[in-house]
Amino acid sequence: MSDVTTPIVQFGTSRFLQAHADLFFQEGTPQRAVTVIQSSGDPDRRKRLAHLTGSYPVRIRGLQDGKTVDEERCVEIVRRTLSTTTDWDEVTRVVTEEAIAILSNTGDSGYDPLPGDETGNDPRDMSYPAKLYHLLAHRHSAGAAPLDIFPMELISDNGIVLRDRVTQIARARSAPDALMNWLAKCRWAVSLVDRIVSEPIEPAGAVAEPYALWAIETQPGLAAPTSHPAIRMVDDIERIERLKLHILNLCHTVLVQLWMEANGESDLTVNAAMKGSLGQRMQAIAETEVLRGFAAHGMKDAAADYLATTLERFRNPFLEHRLSDIAQNHPQKIQRRIGAFLEWVREVEAEFEAPQLQRIASKENTA
Question: Mannitol dehydrogenase N-terminal domain: which residues (predicted)?
Answer without folding.
Answer: 8-219
